[in-house]
Fold these 2 entries.
Entry 1:
Amino acid sequence: MALMRTTRAPGKRSLGLMALLTGTVLLVIAGLLLLWDTAMAPQALALGLLGAAAFIAWGYLLPEERTRLLQRDRLLRAGIALVTLVLMAASIAAVYTLVQRATLLFDITLDQRFTLSDSSLQLIDTVRRSGRQVQITAFYGPEDIVDRQIDDEYFRLYETESRGTIRRMLIDPAQNPGLASPYQPALEAGLNTFLAFVDSDGNIEYDSTIIVPRSTKQERDISQALSQLLVSGAYTVYFETSLGTLDPITDGEQSISTLNSYLRSNGVITDPIALADLAATADTIPLDASAVVLARPQRDPSPAEIAILDEYLSRGGSLFIMADINPAVEGGFMREGSDFSEYLLERFGLRPLDAVVVDPLASGSSGLDVLSYIVYSENPIGVNLNVDGEPDTVTQFRIARPIEVVQHDTVFNGRVIDTSEASWAETDFTSLVEREAYAFDEGVDMRGPLTTVAWAYNPSTEASILLVGDGDFAMNRQAVSPSGNTYLFMDGILSWLTDYSQEVTFAPQAYLTPPLFAAPETLNLFIFVSLVLMPGGMLALAGVFAWRRRA
Amino acid sequence: MRTLWIVYGREITQTITSPFSYLIAAGFLLVTGIAFNNEVNAALLTRQFTPDLIPSLLTLALVFVAPVLTMHLLAEEVREGRMELYLTAPVPTYGIVFGKFLAVWTFYSVLLALTLVYPILLSQVTYPDLAHAFAAYIGIWLYGGATLAVGLLTSGLTDSQLLAAFMAVVVLLVMYLGDYTGSFVTSVELAWLLRNLTLQGHFSTSFAIGVIRPEDIVFFAGMIALCLYGSIQLVESRRWR
């Protein structure tokens, strides 16, 4: 045998062995494929044929081994070895499958990242007691297999803890385009996880769908979305439509349908309402109104309409007002001295001025494209604006008007966004309209900083107002970029005007591991130990043993 | 069992007295040391130190280190004729295979243990997530055992050390690429199945993130058992081939 091995060309023997190994591996994979899914039979067959070809190559390259193997006793021994090997592999696979089905997981991270927090457990308990089934629907292609595995750890936690009240379904959008189609816009935006109620027949109630944000804080995101799902339908925001306001429904640059859709995707019901119709029928704003949006009205409300708003505010209502100014048009919404302007000043200490804000320091393409410069983030409206290191979180107003905030005896009020000290309130509309020119006129124009967004809250009635000195910022063409525009609208309505954020906000698990702090001498010690002492010590030992061997 | 400990003792003695072992250790510590210092500088004042840094780095390193450590184990015995002696002596084959495997796994464990200096150093200046690091170290210890078992198996397939190492690198590289299976198959189920057959599939989304799942331990232990059994069968087949 040894003689035969030495006379055979080593290259041929190596090739033969590699063919044998390749053939074995291919046949094993083909077998596994067939066991996994019979639909994969063609692929398994192709791999099996390749494996067989590799075996033929082995037999051709190493004919002596083939002949020896095909002798009866050797064939028997080889067969026994192979069968026992396969049996062993099958036993291991069986144990593996059993253990995997037990879904045991030991989270030993310091901050328990893979363990549900108490607030999530309480929420799951609420879901269980609600008697309604919830489905987590998540879409992953083959390229997302790693994300899928990590996310699924969390989904399983919710499913197990809710004892099946929350179920999970993972779908490949390419293989199931029909199931993916209702979620297509969100999928194209990179969002892949959704929560929705399931009806008694087991079908998803698509209207209730809540999008789960995609971040590395999965537990917070899922719990927050679950909470939104539970409160969905509890908040209703009305968009006023009879004052020449922006259209919240139709898609188009001049509408605010994007932000309306955002509200709906957060489980908020949105509906139109016409003050003129209510005034004509002596009706009031519905009791379920969490907030009313006046999106860039073109005319002032009539006394009857103001009375409707006043009645609504007196019972704790919330108003989101986007008060534009058009310097080319006489009159318009909330001009100084108008009934509604006087009403807001008297009751809430807020008044939009008849001027256009110019800010040479914080502006976009022209001094009239005003950017948020000072943000008062002590309230929930400004907290996501002008975030350090995130320049996209500024807000941009096109032809904004300043707002006067007057201290009030019975009402709290304040500023959210101010312009820079270099800004001023331009009052020469003629020059602005006819020559598109503007300049600061001492003694005429008011010097900045000027307020462009302000709030007011009446503690006795719990009425709240958010007044923005611009109507364009929330329009579709500007709603997405910069992102501060979206935050102003969404946080203004959801966090400030309703108590929505108190219901659905979940803090992430507290990460206990702090950032790394080290003095330069400590870093030098690290370098010495890790790059000099330890490898150097090993090199020295290598030298010693080499010397001893030579000696 | 006696054979096992005799072979184990012989292999360990050879390893301890071989300058080559210390050269491997020096290279190993140099690479991990560079990675450690890079991470310290990157994390300084901004974020926490990545607890699974060294174990995750080793997942790729082991694809090449494990074959180097194991390529001689059986192939050299055959080439130098010592295997004939083993096979004619009244010693059980499993003792030879287990002894060699345990010896190389011990050497790897010592190398791995040396890198525990890094978390110890870190604990002087911050509060690293030692539990997370512990999970990652448990994972890479098992992962290392599996890669060494594969190396031992390929070493038993041939009497050429180079070919044994090459085959081991190819097999381990394929098994390392588990996280990328989705890039070359079109079915999620198939990608999931293939990933679950790979080493990374049982490390990067479990031990490396601070989670211990029993099925991952079963996978690595099963892989070690299967490769050792295959190696025993390969050695045993020399008796009747």
Entry 2:
Amino acid sequence: MPMVTVGERAVVLVADGPSRWRIEPVGAMRVPGVVFASAELLPDIAGDASLRQVANVAALPGIVDASYAMPDMHAGYGFPIGGVAATDIDAGGVVSPGGVGFDISCGVRLLVADVTRAELAGRLTAVMNALDHAIPRGLGRGAVWRAPGKAALERVLAGGSRYAVREGFGVQRDLDRCEDHGAVGDADPGAVSDRALARGLGQVGSLGSGNHFLELQFVDEIHDATLAAAYGLAPEQVCVMIHCGSRGLGHQICSDHVEAMLAAMPRHHITVADPQLACAPVTSVEGRRYLGAMAAAANYGRANRQLLTHAARGAFHRTAGDVHLDLLYDVSHNLAKLEHHEVHGRGAALCVHRKGATLALPPGHHDLPADLRPHGQPVLVPGSMGTASYVLAGVAGGGAFHSTCHGAGRVMSRHAAMRRIHGRELRETLEASGIAVRAPSDRGLAEEAPFSYKDVDEVVATCEQVGLARRVARLRPLGVLKG
Amino acid sequence: MVAQPGEARRVAGHRVLPHPADLVVEAWGPTLADCLTEAVLGLVSSFADAAGLSPTGERGFPLAAAPAEDQLVTLLGEVIFGIDADGVVPVNARVEPVPAGGFAVHLGTVDAARVAQIGPVPKAVARSGLEVCEAAGCWSGRALVDV
């Protein structure tokens, strides 16, 4: 049975239903840990530091219900990646920048094309070449748009995708189908440091590197025909998936506010097991400033994905003619949100941290656009390169404060992956299986090799089994752009 | 803990290690200044092949007297800032003690567009797992880097 060390004590992970495990509170833990993992996924989880991180998060001031871990969880810094934690704002609940992560509002959007794989086949290489040219990524490659100055950048921070669309980089549907309708309210550009602004000026509309990507995909399998139809997905339909975040600006904001909270914690009489769990009460000056800066970074992240959408549409227009790319949805998987939930039979205002976990609103939720409200929120789950990605749907009664997985989840480090396969070999393997690859670095490619990740099919099946989300469609790649 | 330095570590050096989330930079040297210098070179080696490139610019900045862990975070953060904000990558580094305490840092840089990218670009240094220590006449440091 997997064990987790909490302080000096070794604690057993107790089975708590199918694919659901529990870490009983010991030591400083205020709530239990709850881990969602099938028997196949459990050994990967037990093999790194992530269970200890689940227990450490369970000790945060004001945490309610449980410290949750999604089926794709793996070790992060402070929080596990795949972690969900909610704190009660009126009971001294804290906000922790580490609970959001460095890449604030890192997320995924899916654009659906009105063309099938067969219809695009003759133009696939031209489309990939055009995307290769149009999508800035990697080291020193610029961005779709360079903010002409601090004032323009602050308009991005306040307005997010709404600003980008207003400036002509999109259409109204792009806002209707974006989480928070394109922008988080209460953004406070004044809480963003000059260093963060300097890092953000030249990166609006760029993928970055690491595990971020743009993929040309097709609908490989429909799991729920009714929901797929409601989402506008049909077999063989071509899609574009974009995975990226708030770039250097978001990372700098996280770093800045971790330092501020480390300095403020003694004043708030808070101690944490790991400095990356640095936190402050939501209602404190430090908490409010972080939330304002985080919202600004989230808006930057959405504008970033909006500008990449604009560039992708241009590439299609130049090479594939009259093909339209309509946004299915855009959702973050690194964010803290102020939400109302029922806890122990009473309504509570919570700060819900999702670090490598995706919001999954159920059918009927008032935050969904009217045309999606009867069906639940589309949840976009990128898989490992060359395998599959998924569209899921939020479900009624979804646990963990309406959260689910955010990807396949790493099982080995990027460097260990490199030792098992050379990038050129991987490129050739992908190309041989019909997946076009555009990446500047074979080594960077190897670091994202599919065997570096868990089996995404197992991850999403586990999410469905434990009632976190429902599978709608499976997508497979036709082409991959990486930074 | 950073591995105890052996004889091989009495000279300065660095390496990049795996981490389930991102990567770890380890550096060591006879003095803290050497260790910090190697940390810069280690960070750059994780993503850039600058072999054969001579610096075309320089970034200089003070590293204030502070706990060594804070100095390591600040130093690597400056390198990361230079990549994003100024589009430059260090190809050499000099970290020199100053009489008033702390260090003066000089980075010889090249334009990022001239560098061959061989890995994901670093974006932040975590406070988790951060270590700098001195033992048996050798300084060693370790930092988790988000990419």
